[in-house]
Amino acid sequence: MAKPLSEYNRKRDFEITAEPAGSSPAAKRKASALSFVIQKHDARNLHYDFRLELDGVLLSWAVPKGPSLDPTQKRLAVHVEDHPLSYGSFEGSIPAGQYGAGDVIVWDRGVWQPHDDPRKAYAAGKLKFTLVGEKLSGDWALVRTRLKGSGDKEQWLLIKEKDQQARPASDYDIVQAQPNSVLSDASVGKARAASKPKKTAKPKNAHTALPEQFSPQLATLVDRAPAGDWLYEIKFDGYRMLARIRDGDVRLFTRNGNDWTERLPRQVKALEALKLKDSWLDGEVVSLNADGLPDFQALQNAFDIGRSLDIVYYLFDAPFLDGQDQRKAPVQERRAALKSALSGSRSKLLRFSEAFAANQRDIFESACDLALEGVIGKRAGSAYVSSRSADWIKLKCRLRQEFVIVGYTRPQGSRSGFGALLLAVNEDAGLVYAGRVGTGFDLAALKAIYAKLTPLERKTSPLEKPLTSAQARGVHWVEPTLVAEVQFAEWTREGVVRQAAFVGLRTDKPVSQIIHELPRAAKTLKQPKAKETHKGVNITHPERVIDQQSGTQKQQLAQFYADISGWILPFLHGRPVSLLRAPEGIDGEQFFQKHSERMAIPHIKQLDPALDPGHARLLEIDNADALMGAVQMGTVELHTWGATTDKIETPDLFVLDLDPDPALPWKAMLEAAQLTLSVLDELGLQAFVKTSGGKGLHLIVPLARRDGWDTVKAFAKAIAQFMTEQLPERFTATSGPKNRVGKIFIDYLRNARGASTVAAYSVRARPGLPVSVPVSRDELKGLRSAQQWTVANLHERLQGLKEDPWAGYANRQKISKKMWDKLGAEPPQ
């Protein structure tokens, strides 16, 4: 039987190690499959810790060589102390001097299914079980031997049973083929050491031809620190700079490929002194003030007067280093190699950008207290990609971005030069007004900027839409060639900045790349039919926190829905909608509203009472103001019927909601989706996939509006039962947590009259505010979770889309007699 965790706690000092402390095992927990985890542990000797959940703890064995898929290879498994369940997600470095010092990653995880009573089998020393993991699957056994190990540790054997997943060791070694973490893609042991620079023999095939040009990885702006293992650095207030070292020649380039080598001669000499072979180094050049903090204005002044001695080059990554292509190596390994390469530098102009080990919230708050711009987070284990990536994030103390200067106003009183700068950003139609900035200038800046503005004056506005007469009064228009960096409190609903302060002019970014970093309206591929009223909705209590985890406020949630209104409205238009309301935030009371009530929702459409006899009127959201009205009344989620109001009795779609046991690995969900899609393909039905924003995936099958509710629901049920009969170990068609232990429930119940499913692009009332997002079939295999997109990062996905992931969606499919026959079912009479 499972032993108390006293031995585990006795061996560790939790003031030093980041490992979780063990508490008393919970007496009872919700019905769920038993979890397993295998952690790769680079301690004195590299080994694999095999752990099985039982009775509230993780039974643990150390497997020196790791698991083998070959049944003839019986791997030694040394029984060690039980670990707490919370240890199952631990990744990190156990400090020197602590028990088990070294790096730990989660090599695999999932659920295990004992073949017999697990307690009796464990006591008898012969456990047989099935694994459903990201890497390991099939049948296995743990057998206690009579061999004596060191001390009182029992010697067991881990054995792969003969089944379809078994493979000869001569054909495949899974620990060699898949060495990295299933959580972070981090590596330990030989894989980690291979990426470090060596003075002697290098790994084979490590050398890659150095590219002539190179684009940097860019960070995604977020409003909260996400969960997971992240490295955090200072967000430097300077110019991004890439260094190319080839055949001893050093060249410096801005993020847009402009050669600034001649502007930074001293930094070039310092890099030459490193005597590195072919390399691309990534960093930021900054000027430091008297307190040692970055000062963007001082950096500009240093460039203006050609004083490069005042400029420090902070280096934080090395995609290519000393002849090796490191782009696929985990970020912590690239940085370790870079730090080692810089260790011999004596120049004060080259510095390594250190990462912080403290809690990210503490780091962020400290950065803001020091008046820094913010922090950069990098996902542990992530590779280097030459594009904007969700693996790099930026948290800003205040909103801050670049704007195009399109005009200026006359100065008032004793002020010289100009009063304020008029700002704009690029949108599809052209330059769009984004407000003005009149503070943050000293006398020298006023004079210098005014001297740049006067030669650029023009008679007409460069904006796509004219300003009102009040806004344009006293404005001098200029050619849109200058770029200003501005910090501000927030964007208003009208798309202008509030409480703006000037930071400096930018010469490293072209005007064409200046856009709204948090887009007010994502490019719509499918416009709503409803006519926009633009009456406006007053958001009361805008500062109310909707989600404690992300800190998202009511006004921010309203802005998010306003930004994506063009994407979500097509899925709301013409359908009854049910609202999940959380007036005090998602941690408070939540309730559904299907009908109109005494508390009117601004601009929402109340439907014909005949659609739902005996009840108050059903609701519909068919314009952006109604969407804002719903948020004003505390709505977080939007759920829609599977039929439109003009033909309410004949659904135009059915939904298969794949709802997993939470303990199952994500790989099991992806496999389940592919299997279900294969069955739909065999039936001749085209399906469309979206993340639920919760735990699973939704498969949407559009239909011609012919059959009634009972027929459509019965057909969806027939598919669920067919899948369950074919693969009973994977699927269940019966609801309830007890019925889906270790399985995926195919929920067909959402297809009844009056039932609803969360709409595409709706936020979910869950910590972090994830969003239900459509994906293409090709994207399915690359999904990381059902909560991959949130209110903080969805705009990045929408900006990057080249085509609608649901292109080709059309309600023309009909349920045929042949389909019923293939499922072995009969339609209702």
TrEMBL record:
<dbReference type="Pfam" id="PF04679">
    <property type="entry name" value="DNA_ligase_A_C"/>
</dbReference>
<keyword id="KW-0540">Nuclease</keyword>
<dbReference type="InterPro" id="IPR012310">
    <property type="entry name" value="DNA_ligase_ATP-dep_cent"/>
</dbReference>
<keyword id="KW-0436">Ligase</keyword>
<keyword id="KW-0479">Metal-binding</keyword>
<dbReference type="InterPro" id="IPR012340">
    <property type="entry name" value="NA-bd_OB-fold"/>
</dbReference>
<dbReference type="InterPro" id="IPR012309">
    <property type="entry name" value="DNA_ligase_ATP-dep_C"/>
</dbReference>
<dbReference type="Pfam" id="PF13298">
    <property type="entry name" value="LigD_N"/>
</dbReference>
<keyword id="KW-0547">Nucleotide-binding</keyword>
<dbReference type="GO" id="GO:0003677">
    <property type="term" value="F:DNA binding"/>
</dbReference>
<keyword id="KW-0464">Manganese</keyword>
<protein>
    <recommendedName>
        <fullName>DNA ligase (ATP)</fullName>
        <ecNumber>6.5.1.1</ecNumber>
    </recommendedName>
</protein>
<keyword id="KW-0548">Nucleotidyltransferase</keyword>
<feature type="domain" description="ATP-dependent DNA ligase family profile">
    <location>
        <begin position="308"/>
        <end position="396"/>
    </location>
</feature>
<dbReference type="GO" id="GO:0006310">
    <property type="term" value="P:DNA recombination"/>
</dbReference>
<feature type="compositionally biased region" description="Basic residues">
    <location>
        <begin position="193"/>
        <end position="205"/>
    </location>
</feature>
<dbReference type="InterPro" id="IPR014144">
    <property type="entry name" value="LigD_PE_domain"/>
</dbReference>
<feature type="region of interest" description="Disordered">
    <location>
        <begin position="185"/>
        <end position="210"/>
    </location>
</feature>
<keyword id="KW-0234">DNA repair</keyword>
<keyword id="KW-0239">DNA-directed DNA polymerase</keyword>
<keyword id="KW-0233">DNA recombination</keyword>
<dbReference type="GO" id="GO:0005524">
    <property type="term" value="F:ATP binding"/>
</dbReference>
<keyword id="KW-0378">Hydrolase</keyword>
<keyword id="KW-0067">ATP-binding</keyword>
<keyword id="KW-0238">DNA-binding</keyword>
<dbReference type="InterPro" id="IPR014146">
    <property type="entry name" value="LigD_ligase_dom"/>
</dbReference>
<dbReference type="GO" id="GO:0003887">
    <property type="term" value="F:DNA-directed DNA polymerase activity"/>
</dbReference>
<feature type="region of interest" description="Disordered">
    <location>
        <begin position="1"/>
        <end position="25"/>
    </location>
</feature>
<dbReference type="Pfam" id="PF21686">
    <property type="entry name" value="LigD_Prim-Pol"/>
</dbReference>
<dbReference type="InterPro" id="IPR014143">
    <property type="entry name" value="NHEJ_ligase_prk"/>
</dbReference>
<keyword id="KW-0227">DNA damage</keyword>
<dbReference type="Pfam" id="PF01068">
    <property type="entry name" value="DNA_ligase_A_M"/>
</dbReference>
<keyword id="KW-0808">Transferase</keyword>
<dbReference type="GO" id="GO:0046872">
    <property type="term" value="F:metal ion binding"/>
</dbReference>
<dbReference type="GO" id="GO:0004527">
    <property type="term" value="F:exonuclease activity"/>
</dbReference>
<keyword id="KW-0269">Exonuclease</keyword>
<dbReference type="GO" id="GO:0006281">
    <property type="term" value="P:DNA repair"/>
</dbReference>
<dbReference type="InterPro" id="IPR033651">
    <property type="entry name" value="PaeLigD_Pol-like"/>
</dbReference>
<keyword id="KW-0511">Multifunctional enzyme</keyword>
<dbReference type="InterPro" id="IPR052171">
    <property type="entry name" value="NHEJ_LigD"/>
</dbReference>
<dbReference type="InterPro" id="IPR014145">
    <property type="entry name" value="LigD_pol_dom"/>
</dbReference>
<dbReference type="GO" id="GO:0003910">
    <property type="term" value="F:DNA ligase (ATP) activity"/>
</dbReference>
